[in-house]
Write a structure and sequence with these properties.
Shape: elongated
GO molecular function: beta-catenin binding; cadherin binding; calcium ion binding
Oligomer: single chain
Function: Cadherins are calcium-dependent cell adhesion proteins.
Protein name: Cadherin 19
Keywords: Calcium, Cell adhesion, Cell membrane, Cleavage on pair of basic residues, Glycoprotein, Membrane, Metal-binding, Repeat, Signal, Transmembrane, Transmembrane helix
Pfam families: CADH_Y-type_LIR (PF01049), Cadherin (PF00028)
Strand order of the largest sheet: 3-9-8-5
Low-confidence stretches: 1-18, 20-44, 636-641, 664-678, 741-756
Number of strands: 40
């Protein structure tokens, strides 16, 4: 037995010594646990702490220590009392000896210590003989907890091809045992799975790379880390956790074409921008590290282009410029694929790019004619005679067949009337005179059609400019209204004039103003040229009289600077008016206007008086007519009613007296006196029959009409409004005979007749 073992045994026995007297004197406890650990620290009556081992299986209470006053003479006078954490349940005290016992198994991880208070009192007087003392019973730790990784399982990411020693992640285990006592909480880390690529530092748990790894070979690794207490010695507890380590990609691989040659075809008729084909270089990297650009090297980049599809990383070859089968039938393109992202650590291994060759064959196609220019600009002077030459256009068939071409003007009937083109030579001439002032430019669309294949058509625009010829004389831009007051002085400016010219002058227009030859002797007005395309009209004498002459006509000669120059005579009308002292322009213009109309003030007053008389007469006529209408109906308007009768059948003719009651049209206040009517039925019938045998000039016929008129006027039941009387006199010689009810078997009864 070494010295450390003897020292521990002696210390344990010394701790147990206080419990021995209590066991010998009272025989209440047996020393069944000779290795129970306790400690007593006494400073007078002050007690510090006791110790007890955790996790002890108790069959009977275990002695922890003894409390004893120096004044205690062991005569039973003193009584010891224990209070605090677990007093009476977990810990008990012998009130005679002060011996403390633990009655339950304790767990340090649940409660590491208990705070208790002890007091000694006189059993007889119940008064304290010692002051209350506080002490601690500390649960001494044993290795009963295993290490645990509370944050596991772990996951980490590290770039591929990282150098050895690169830190990946740190794992940490926790042991609930007391780290201040023994080695129960002292952990040691080790790696169970993950070698030879990873290692772990034993004390810190930091995982490091032991060997370089390539993501393209293996992308994920599973590492198992163990943490063992007791510094890794035998008999200790251990715990494990799993660490998932992912390798992130870096640009350590260059793009590689799977084919050294690609073969494609393109028709010469394909438009610019057409897709010819696709190529693709493969890169083992992912994401941005696999992104690449395709580049065409050499002069072929002027004819073809290649763009990258960012989703598939394909290179799309497109047509940048039209190709011609007759000019070049095959192209060989050198294409390079280059990574967009470069990693400087791998540049020493060479450029991250690859090259391939694309063979493109041009296919022949029947192409439309091709003009020698994209557009044509021609000139012709205005006024050129019909048939004058304007210009010529030329187109050719680009195919080997070299088909003849036919030219024509399209899209405008108006232009066809102005221009014509020779269908075979493309010569353009004019059909009628052109006026630049009407249209300075003409845009003609000309088509060229292959005669062997009319479906092949091309168009071109021909711009024809009509050149200006000085064929328009200058003139006034507007009509000038010039007025001069009677009291105007000589040399006074009364108007500034200018001129315009429809022609186009290269050097700019310049006009000259003078009086016309026939007005050179004019002593009333003068024209003064301002040399800026304007001129002033000035008076040449003092005062004018409108009674003598109310208007003057002044011819002005205008000359332009064209080649040859043209002149025109424009006449100004100067009106004389009566002005006030301030020479008011408005009153002056009004007076001049009256004089220009040939009217004096007196004549104007007479005209206005006549108009007023006519208006009064017209109003009087309207008033008289309105009163006449009112006299025809003296009664109140509301006493008159209308009765609208609608017949939905043919009715019984004049004998139908049940259609409506004519009495409803009568007023309540005015009733015509009923007069007896003479019975003239027989007379009328006789007269009517006689009238059938005579003409309209017969006296019998006239008598019939007069009798009917008299009967209508004397009818008391006639309504108070106009009545239309219809007399169906057929005369003689009618094949149909009479349709009148007078000739029917049922005689006409005037008393039952109604009128509409």
């Amino acid at each position: 037995m070494n010295c450390y073992a003897w020292l521990s045994l002696l210390l344990t026995l010394s701790h147990l010594w206080p419990c021995l007297p209590s066991m010998q004197n009272h025989n209440t406890h047996k020393m069944n646990h000779p290795f129970a650990t306790l400690q007593r620290v006494k400073r007078g009556w002050v007690w510090s702490q006791f110790f007890v081992l955790e996790e002890q299986i108790l069959t009977e209470p275990l002695c922890v220590g003894q409390l004893k006053s120096d004044s205690d003479k062991h005569d039973g006078t003193f009584k010891y009392i224990l209070t605090g954490d677990g007093a009476g349940s977990i810990f008990t005290i012998d009130e005679y000896t002060g011996t403390i016992h633990v009655t339950q198994k304790l767990d340090r991880e649940e409660k590491p210590f208990y705070t208790l208070r002890a007091q000694a009192i006189n059993r007889n007087t119940q008064l304290p003989v010692e002051p209350e003392s506080e002490f601690i019973i500390k649960v001494q730790d044993i290795n009963d907890q295993e290490p645990k990784f509370l944050d596991g399982p772990y996951e980490a990411t590290v770039p591929e091809m990282s150098p050895e020693g690169t830190s990946v992640i740190q794992v940490t285990a926790t042991d609930r045992d007391d780290p201040a006592y023994g080695n129960s909480a002292r952990l040691l880390y080790s790696i169970l799975q993950g070698q030879p690529y990873f290692s772990v530092e034993p004390k810190t748990g930091v995982i490091r790379i032991s060997s370089q790894m390539d993501r393209e070979t293996k992308e994920q690794y599973f590492v198992i880390i163990q943490a063992k207490d007791m510094v890794g010695q035998m008999g200790g507890f251990s715990g494990t956790t799993t660490v998932t380590i992912n390798l992130s990609d870096i640009n350590d691989n260059k793009p590689i074409f799977q084919q050294k040659f690609y073969y494609m075809n393109i028709s010469e008729a394909a438009p610019v921008g057409s897709t010819i084909g696709k190529i693709m270089a493969e890169d083992s990297d992912i994401g941005e590290n696999a992104a690449m650009n395709y580049v065409i090297e050499g002069q072929e980049s002027l004819v073809f282009d290649i763009i990258t599809n960012n989703e598939t990383q394909e290179g799309i070859v497109i047509l940048k410029e039209r190709v011609d089968f007759e000019s070049k039938r095959r192209y060989s393109i050198r294409v390079k694929a280059i990574n967009r992202q470069m990693d400087d650590h791998f540049m020493k291994e060479g450029p991250f790019e690859d090259t391939t060759i694309i063979k493109i064959s041009v296919e022949d196609a029947d192409e439309p004619p091709v003009f020698t220019s994209q557009n044509y600009v021609m000139e012709i002077a205005e006024g050129a005679t019909n048939g004058s030459f304007v210009g010529a256009i030329t187109a050719r068939d680009p195919d080997n067949a070299n088909s003849p071409i036919r030219y024509s003007i399209v899209h405008s009937t108006y232009l066809k009337r102005l221009f014509s083109i020779n269908a075979h030579s493309g010569t353009i001439i004019i059909n009628k005179l052109l006026d630049r002032e009407t249209a300075a430019w003409h845009n003609i669309t000309v088509t060229a059609t292959e005669m062997r294949n009319p479906e092949q058509v091309s168009e071109v625009t021909v711009y024809v400019q009509v050149l200006d010829v000085n064929d328009h004389a200058p003139e006034f831009p507007k009509h000038y209204e010039i007025y001069v007051c009677e009291n105007t002085r000589s040399g006074q400016l009364i108007q500034t004039i200018s001129a315009v010219d429809k022609d186009d002058s290269v050097e700019g227009h310049h006009f000259y103003f003078t009086l016309a030859r026939e007005a050179t002797n004019n002593s009333n007005f003068t024209v003064r040229d301002n040399q800026d395309n304007t001129a002033g009209i000035f008076t040449a004498k003092n005062g004018f009289s409108r009674q003598e002459q109310f208007a003057f006509f002044l011819p002005v000669l205008i000359v332009d600077n064209g080649t040859p120059s043209l002149t025109s005579t424009n006449t100004l009308t100067v009106s004389v008016c009566d002005c006030d002292t301030e020479a008011s322009a408005q009153s002056c213009r009004f007076g001049a206007f009256m004089f220009s109309m040939g009217l004096s003030i007196e004549a104007l007053v007479g005209v206005l008086a006549c108009i007023l008389v006519i208006l009064v007469f017209f109003l009087a006529m309207l008033v008289l007519r309105q009163r006449r209408k009112q006299s025809l109906f003296p009664d109140k308007p509301e006493e008159f009613r209308e009765n609208i009768v609608r017949y939905d059948d043919e009715g019984g003719g004049e004998e139908d007296t049940e259609a409506f009651d004519i009495s409803t049209l009568r007023t309540r206040t005015v009733m015509r006196e009923h007069k007896s009517r003479r019975n003239i039925t027989t007379e009328i019938q006789s007269l009517y029959r006689q009238s059938l045998q005579v003409g309209p000039d017969s006296a019998v016929f006239r008598e019939f009409i007069l009798e009917k008129l008299k009967e209508a006027n004397a009818d008391p039941t006639a309504p108070p409004y106009d009545s239309l009387q219809t007399y169906a006199f057929e005369g003689t010689g009618s094949l149909a005979g009479s349709l009148s009810s007078l000739g029917s078997t049922c005689m006409y009864d005037p008393s039952k007749s109604t009128r509409d």
